[in-house]
Amino acid sequence: MAEQRHPRRWLAWITIGLIIGAVEAIFAMAFAALVFGGRIEDFIAEGISLYLGAAALTLGIFAWLAGSRGVVGGLQPATAVVLATVSATVAVTAFGSIERAFVTVVAASLVVTVLCGVAFVVLGTSRRANLIRFIPYPVVGGFLAGVGWLLVKGAVYVSADALPSLTPVGDLFQASALQLWGPAFALGVVLLVATRLVKRPIVIPVVLGIGLVLFAIGMLVTGSSIASARSGHWLLLGPFDSFQSWQAWTLRSITGADWSAVAGQWVGILAAVLVATIVILFNISGTEIVLRRDLDTNRELRDAGVLNVISGALGGIPGYHALSLTALAEGMSADARVAGLIAAAVPLAGVIFGASVIELFPRMIVGGVLVYLGLAFMVEWVWDQRKVLPPLEYGVVLVILAAIIARGFLPGVVVGLVLAVVLFAVNYGRTELVREVAFGETYHSNVDRPPAERAALRTMGERVQILRVNGFVFFGSANGLLERIRKRVEAAPLRFLVIDLRRVTGVDSSAVVAFVKVMHLAEASGFELVFTGASEAVRRQLARGGVAASEVVRFEPDLERGLQRCEEGLLRDEALVAPGATDGQDGRDGRWRTAGMPAGLERYTERESLSDGAVLIRQGESPDDVYVLESGRLRVEMQTPDGARMRVRSISPGVVVGEVAMYSGDPRTADVVAEGPSVVLRLDRSSIARIEAEDPALASAMHRWLAGVLSERLSDTLREFDALLD
Asked: 313, CA 20 to 30 Å: which among 51, 281, 445, 549?
């Protein structure tokens, strides 16, 4: 049975390969008819030969490089139609004979295809495939809808030999013209409907085969001869005295082309490369869906780049992943490498046998393929996306399409790029990049303060505004930030404005100007502007714009240090800190510092003086003591697994230290170190036992006091946790 199945499997693969090759050959002829029409139509046979060769190369090279992954390559309509726009202008502006105009168009095709290959290789090698995804989705949709329109226009030209842009609309609907492009349009519509209703990849070759059969039957029924069909513009090409398909046209183009005409179309050439890069990434994503497996996008780009460099050097047109052909091979369970190599023989045969075969091909089939491809693009982006995209983004698609219809593809590209910037500014401006958080309760420094100070700071929350900014601050969001600050200043007096820039990736000149205005507002309104967490790059840009450290503007390394500065300033304003005090020093006496401690507890404590840097508590020690800081400042720090020291918080006078570990019995979790000369009151475990034995009332008050400290710290922790979750 296995031996019987093997020949059948190969027969199926050969059949699928021949079908893929026939479809790709028709695509090649259709695209060549687009690119090599107009002034250089006398050389259309040579152009078809070049593109048939490109089809053979695309199928063969892709089969060899990517066939093992199930990928089938093909020539691409999106790039072909942009190249046709470039070529039409190049052919008209090229100086010299018709033959020189033809080789100039070949040169333009060479440049576009090779540049596409280089772009793919560079993106794939540098692993920068995601760069192109910065173009907004609706802008891409507008481009592709415009490509669809140009393909439909090209179909009318190929079918009726009349340019829609130069022919009055009424003339196109005259019987003589309508009978030529009408059947092609009908075939394209049938193809579109069939592919949307019958979700099978075989439908395209089946419909095209039926179209060829119907055309042959029509000729038999009407008694038409080949000569009459050719004279009636029913066939793609006329008779040829000679068909020099094997001439090295690319070599001749290097020396014989009008390169100034090619250079004059640099905008269109870059547009073709841009469209090709966008579409290949869409196709790679679609191929993953068809094959139901992940692909390495960078590898796919490199393979496509190699193909296009080779194909372009031989005068080909850009080619890469073909979704319909890949789906056909996958749907028929064919080996994509074998099917692709067999398929490459079909367009290659067209090159070898030349015009004797090509001149018998109906215009209706070529035009129908172009109509199908064009309508597929337009229906997908104009009809299918109407309920998917938001109204604004859907409007962008329609505006770009209207610009391409009214002014052409290149003006449409310009409109699209402008709308991309506008769309980015609008959408990014809507994003909530600034978050205001309340000072005092949840957001405060990690300095542990005595209850009186904490209570005082809670009442002064309205004097501090904290703004946490994210992302890139630019003209679309800077003005909103400025207006928010102005409204806050008008609503109530400020003492500090804290702007946290830790998550800011960059600022543009408009944002710098906005911050300068905030600085002037601070000078006029009498508040201090504190920037926290700004990177060096952001600080340099702010400094260039005039925002530098001064009496009004301060820069702190992080939000915690900025909040600590605000707290010290507010407490100093309330005379809770002496006017000349600095961190670790204050103007309060010992009685105030130990406020909250139950009366009579001091006689059980031991006063201990610490020099700067002295270690009061060591991480991992047994918890036998509780301390109250009477003066100075303590620093809590931990040692990370890699041996680094990390500052956790600071402790100001009047704060209890070590009560958690003493109650839990667990080893100390951090070091406590003196920051400058300090004095602590030490209460050891034996003293606590003596209090409990000698003075139960004092013991009860002591435990209530320590329980209150624990409760307050737990509440702070929960508020901070909730803020992080928000």
From this structure: 281
